[in-house]
Amino acid sequence: MNLGELLAELNRRGLEVRVEGDALRLRGPKGAATPELRQSLAEHKPELLELLRAHDRGQEEAPIVPVQRTGPAPLSYGQTRLWFLDRLEPGSTAYNLMLALQVEGHLDVAIVKRCFTEVIRRHEVLRTRYAEHAGVPVQIVDPEPRFDFRVLDEREVLASEPAGVEAFLQREGKRPFDLATGPVMRVLIIERGPQGQYLQLCLHHIAADVWAQAILVREIVTLYGAFASGQPSPLPPLTLQYSDFAVWQREYLQGEVRQKLVDYWRKKLEGAPPLLELPTDHPRPKVQSNRGGEVRFEVGPQLTAALKALSHTARTTPFVGMLSAFFVLLHRLTGREDLVLGANSINRTRTELEPLVGFFVDNLVMRVDLGGNPGFAAVLERVRETVLDAFAHQDLPFDLLVEELRPARSLGFNPLFQVVFAWVRASGEAQDETGLRMRPIEFEAESSRFDLNLFVDDHGDRLSARMVFNRDLFEQGTIQHYVDCFQVLLEGLVAEPQRPVGELPVLPADVRERVLRQWNDTGTPEAEGACLHALIEAQALRTPDAVAVVVDDWELTYGELDQLSDRVAASLQDLDVGPEVAVGVYLDRSAEFIVSLLAVMKAGGAFLALDADEPVDRLRHIVADARPRVVISSTKLSERLWGMGGFVTLHVDEGVRGVPAAPGQQLRRDVLPDQLAYILYTSGSTGRPKGTEITHRSIVNYLRWSVDAYRLREGTGSPVIGSVSFDGTLTSLFAPLLAGRALFLVPRGHEIDQLTSRDYPEQGFSFIKMTPSHLRAFNGLGRTREVLGRTHAVVLGGEGLHGVDLAPWREQGLPTRVINEYGPTEAAVACCFETLLPDGTPPPERVPIGRPIPHMRLYILDRYLQPVPVGVPGELYIGGVGLARGYLRRPDLTAERFVPNPFDGGLEGSRLYRTGDHARYLSDGRIEYLGRQDDQLKIRGHRVEAGEVEAALGRHPDVVQAAVLLQRLPSGAPRLVAYVQPQSMENGDLRAELRKSLREVLPEYMMPEVIAVLPELPLTPSGKIDRKALPPGVSEAPVASALARTEARTETERQLQALFGELLGLSSVAPTDSFFELGGHSLLAVTLISRISAKLGIEVPLNEVFDRPSVEALAHWIDEHSSKVTALIRQLPACVVALKPLGHKPPLFLTPPSAGSPAVYVALARHLDAEQPVFGFQMPGVMDDQLPPETIEDTAALYVAALRQVQPRGPYRIAGWSYGGLVVSEMARQLEALGEQVALLGLIDGAALDRLAGHDGTPQEIPAGSQLIKVLGEAQMPRDYASLRLIGEWMGISLPESWADLLRRDTDGQYSYLWRFLRDSALTARNFLATRRSEQLYTFSSYGGSATLFRTGPVTIGGDPLVDSVRRFALAGTEVIPVPGNHMTLIMDERNVAVLAIEIQKCLDRVLPLPPIAEMSRAEMPATGLAAQLPMEVM
């Protein structure tokens, strides 16, 4: 291997090589350095020495040095991602790291605890908490070790967990961590008596990675040996801590260093597919969970040795070899050539990072092109180059890469890659110096952060692997099948490295036998070969008086049908019609039409059915191409044939008048089953119709099957409602005639009216055959019951069938059987079917097309004609007796579409038809139709199935049917356009309703840009949606204008534009611009929702920013969700702010602290019950130059008056924090004087009068403002600018992102930040002075009611002056509830606020409830009482 590959292999094995003088020193896991690897090191020693010395010189230029601890440190880029994900999904355990060990022997528990205490003291990251300051996370290091250490007896464990100790350990490992409060490490010991112990270490990934786990185990073992023998710690002091790395990383990745890395990755990933669309069992959810599972497998010694040998021959490593094989598997599963996955990197390239515990591991993006169907040897070379390049540019963290590249974001999948490969050196048993043995316990994965992960452990002579998968997408059996395929593929890759990878077998032998043979075992005793007309003649002989054809009130019997068709056939034979001669039949849907079709076949010819409504140009082309010898028509219709020439016209007018009788004339019977029965023209891809030639044997095979499958003899026959030139109509035309049943000819253009009419007398049909578009039309008319109630079965074909199409059938409990039939014209109408019984079982979203009919075979193949794995999409191929002969006079096209069958053992003449349809096998052998290959649309790199979007549109109750097309704008940009046929054109809000419903089920890239509402969608003569006839270039006024507009349409859009621009540093933002495409990222999204909350007074869930990243979409959501309160906003008194106006519970009113703004309570309001309304008071002068009240009594009186406008009568629920506690206490006293009842007086770490009660009983007054200043000093805040901004927000002072921004001009050239800062500072200083004076002037008297004090810190009765002060004030009693944090962090720290909200809500729910104000009638409510519902913006 070359030097680059050697370094990559060292990295994969966790080995570090360093220079000591002229020697190389190797360090890493025991056994990781094989003799072969040491030999390679020796061979490359000179190069390594030069490279490592240069590397050391580079490190000297950018060394990692200890950072002075003057404040909280930032998080590393990797930690920031984990912190964000924890915010996105609180309580998730997806990033819990668990290491469980079975101990043989006995550990001294006290010594173990001492060891872990020492390790935590040694590594700061293990005693670090992660707080948020102004939307930015920071590291807070606790001064002393703190961790969860528990010792349990095995008997206790088994009593609580019957499934056993290992199940208990796994459950314990899934307990979430609280990153804000810590600790981030837990240790559990389970005593087993003489059998030993279990030891489990659980950490959050933000503090450690797998390498760090090994460091911890090594240090614990070392410390235990030392402490057990009475020795001090032998571990050398650490020169660095993880936070030093985090600071260095952010400083190092700046300027030119960062730009070079970004430029490389930007070029490397340009145009990469955003999503690797693996074949899944379930649709991708909008928000993917981390529920996971795994399948384990072994690569045996022989195959492992072969893979490693091949890798070394290719001058690369086994890591690259296995990664290459995995790329080939993904290629075979997806059919894609451009593949992207992630590979783990230990990312400890610097020697000084080796001993550190921390989160260093990162994911490298690997992009490989497998185009050209290369051999595995070539794949190895491509992957080798990719790996070397990736490791050479690994210093750019994945999270920074995402921030720079701004890929499309979705909560449903990971950006850049969704599949991960990891190669690790397997760990074995550990043994310490005391003889204790510790064996790792392996648990089955229960979480997966990616769609699919392949973890490979190298044991030297063999490989063990785990394929971990996301259960939102996959079933366990599917992944087991993929694993089985991978092992087959791996054997082929190693055995034939030069053979193209697309041609190698991928299916295990038993699976291959199943899909090729067993699932195609449709052989039944084949009936004697017969021609179609002969079977009908036989039926006429058996039942000559039975009704064969019904037209309105007119009937034709089988005997009459037989006689009339003989007359026409005789005339045709007189015109030299015989076998293989085409005869056109150009008639309306009539008895004469049926007679003529039968007559052509009796004469030996092949009928060419021509639709009476066929456009003249198309008719002319068909006639010219088919060259019929005779055309049977009526006198009137034949006029349209003038000028087409080359044939004789035979007129058969009403009752076949004009056709001479042929008494005694014997028809020639020389046609054979393998000769043509008919020619049917279908649309060609070039726009030129092509004629498909079908033999008697082919069509008879289908019709004989359909008689039994449809249970034709149970009903009266079938109505004919389709075009005569549509092969699906042949079922209705001929199947009843083989069973002695009738054809009911429905007048053309009146099919829907007649079948839905209650006056139509026919009932008890054997079946009705129609397209799903027909069914949707009946559904839309609300007449499904009338139609399906007439028949024993409905046969659907011609289009994909979705579960939503069958909803009325199921909901109305109709007894009709549903048969979903599939087959192209080239397979004689149909080749497979699925029957759905009326048993109430909900149909699947995609209704399968089932299994092949007798004597037909189906294959799902990839582009190299290899059978694909079960569940994997491929092209559907059809074989069997039902195949067409080919295309009339089109040998080139016939050869292209009808190919030799490679699976028929070389049987001469056996062919397969390439359908061009996408399908896949389900696990039970049924087939699921996925649509036409040419219907697959591509939007921004994503594949979009039109049928999936159409089905989502069809779920709306006002939609009859829908079609989705890809159109291109003049610029060439693609867009999705949806055409919708509504129940009624009167629903003007339909587009908005559809967009809302689509957002619930579809990702953003599948959303149609335009929704065109049409009175009806055009249908082809066969009843399918005619996509070519849909109007091109449609626009939807609101959307079309939005694509170009730059001005906001609503006030919400205007405010969001300003917020986007402010956060992203942009002078202008268009309403359609995406937050992320403009440069936003995860952390800025957190800040954005905080700003929206402050500016707009509405809490936007984080996921809404991802789902609706544009100004327009987010504004629409905000307006939609704030509409309930908008009308009430203007009715509140000026000093009342609605923090959360709606809800059925009695409202809570909050008084502000000395800064005067209730904005500090926004988070508290959000964490209270969803039905809990919350209002805040705002002190005059906060937002303007108005002077605040001079005394606390005046402030309280102002608030009481406003309170009684909002809620005219008590009991009241009031609370206040800090200085607000003084004001709310005075409010309670004033309300009591007015005769009102206070149900809850809540004092949030504030009191009626803050007194420092001396032990001599002489009270010393300490005003609330002084207490705040004291706490601010003790709280070590602000430590940095971010902390200062947080305090500024509480005080009402607006600070920009950085000090430098204070002097930045806005787009108008003004110093808006500076002027805002100076204004806010002046107002805040004035308000603080005013409240301080009011405290000094306040005269206190007691209150007769009770109070609840929410107290921070340890609560001590008799020694806490605040508690004592409240007890003296509230004469009816005081309840003290401890809450976390200090005076400031109780309100400013989100985690503490959440706990406080829980305690306050308990108190609110405990007091006597009143009927909600919202339930009062307007007659009962005073004129100002509506203000009780009102919100006002929190500024």
From TrEMBL:
Q: Which UniProt keywords apply?
A: Phosphopantetheine, Phosphoprotein
Pfam families according to UniProt: AMP-binding, AMP-binding_C, Condensation, PP-binding, Thioesterase, TubC_N
Question: Would the keyword Phosphoprotein turn up in this protein's UniProt record?
Answer: yes
| Classification via InterPro entries | AA_adenyl_dom (IPR010071), AB_hydrolase_fold (IPR029058), ACP-like_sf (IPR036736), AMP-bd_C (IPR025110), AMP-bd_C_sf (IPR045851), AMP-binding_CS (IPR020845), AMP-dep_synth/lig_dom (IPR000873), CAT-like_dom_sf (IPR023213)
Spell out the GO cellular component terms annotated for this protein, sorted alphabetically and separated by semicolons: cytosol; enterobactin synthetase complex
Per the entry, which co-factors are needed? pantetheine 4'-phosphate
From the UniProt record, give one GO term of the biological process aspect. Answer: enterobactin biosynthetic process
Q: Name one GO molecular function term.
A: phosphopantetheine binding
Q: Which residues form the Carrier domain?
A: 1047-1122
Q: Which Gene3D superfamilies match?
A: 3.30.300.30, 3.40.50.980, ACP-like, alpha/beta hydrolase, Chloramphenicol acetyltransferase-like domain, Luciferase, Domain 3, Non-ribosomal peptide synthase, adenylation domain, Nonribosomal peptide synthetase, condensation domain
Q: Which SMART domains match?
A: PKS_PP, PKS_TE
Which protein is depicted?
Amino acid adenylation domain-containing protein
The species this protein belongs to is Myxococcus virescens
Give the source lineage, highest ranks first: Bacteria, Pseudomonadati, Myxococcota, Myxococcia, Myxococcales
